Known about the structure:
Dihydroxyacetone phosphate binds at residues 18, 132, 265, 286. By secondary structure, the chain is of the alpha+beta class. It folds into two domains: 1-118, Alpha-Beta Plaits; 119-354, no CATH class. Helices cover 25% and strands 26% of the residues. The longest helix has 20 residues, at 67-86. Bound molecules: 1,3-dihydroxyacetonephosphate (2 copies) and magnesium ion (4 copies).
Amino acid sequence: MKTTISVIKADIGSLAGHHVVHPDTMAAANKVLAEAKKNGIIIDYYITNVGDDMELIMTHNRGELDTKVHETAWDAFKEATKVAKDLGLYAAGQDLLSDTFSGNLKGMGPGIAEMEIEERPAEPIAIFMADKTEPGAFNYPQYKMFADPFNTAGLVIDPTMHEGYKFEILDVYAGESVTLNAPEEIYDILALIGTPSQYVIRRVYRKADNIIASVTSIERLNLLAGKYVGKDDPVMIVRVQHGFPALGEVLEAFSFPYLVPGWMRGSHYGPLMPVSQRDARATRFDGPPRLIGLGFNIKNGRLVGPSDLFDDPAFDETRRLAEQIADYMRRHGPFMPHRLEPTEMEYTTLPLIQQKLKARFKKEAGVVEAKKSIYEKQVEGGD
Ligand code: 13P
Ligand code: 13P
Ligand code: MG
Ligand code: MG
Ligand code: MG
Ligand code: MG
């Protein structure tokens, strides 16, 4: 029988700002999941948090987008929200964009990463969960894991990986996806995924047999809600070992604290800092963006583990560099490229300011008016 791993997350409120989930809200969610386990809806579960995001890790035999499993997650978030409201937590129910559940959680606010697998005799997986960033933040490490031999030795020396992987890339604005092959099409892949705000790697498959290797949540809350309701704080499930990258190759992809959008008010670039569960609190300038990783083995749907993957001095230098980058970026204050470009900002007073100052702008003789960027002209097919 196939096993499905469902990682479903939502921010239902935080103690003191946006930095941490309150344990009482986790206890409320735990009650709902324990009941679902007793009733046979799910086989096993584990609840954790990264910053202000509550993470439900569940296993079952019901496949992806299952109504009962999604309803269980929804109920858990609703019950947790009740407690958050009782306690007067900040932004209680933040990511629950709708009041009523209908069928599954798609488009309702929570982030969803699910994969249905045929369990291998040993099925090791790693689950990554981030706070203060968005789904495209997993583009860079997925490329490193599955396409870069300088990261993943197995791409060169393991015959079961040597053929490469397929990347399913979603255009979150157009709602269309394309599947591209690595290594043959890596330049095309990079041309797209280097713009992570628009192109998000949703799934990776092993090319030799089309077996799923990784899946990420792709929900972008502001695109769903049409306004800022918080960052999308993504999750990712990665299968490791035996035809997939080794756990150490997967973790190596996070050894460089690369810049991601998010951080304060969802509107600043900052380094993604891998931390232990203990340090999964977004404090300085509401960050820096945090990442946790948990390692499990799955056996007949049972979640064996977890191991707290970044609770390791081997990542101390990554964290130290992240802190240095955080200092460096912060010193730019409101200047780009610390602050996001106007089209990606989650908050902006810019149109109001432009409006207010409109009458005070004076025409300058001899300065040509440039109407469009080179990119916009090329998209329109101009010269
Ligand atoms: P062990 O000998 O410790 O099992 O290592 C196997 C391996 O391939 C590590 O990447
Ligand atoms: P969250 O998406 O984690 O709630 O972030 C909100 C925010 O604006 C932090 O400054
Ligand atoms: Mg929040
Ligand atoms: Mg969050
Ligand atoms: Mg958020
Ligand atoms: Mg061994």
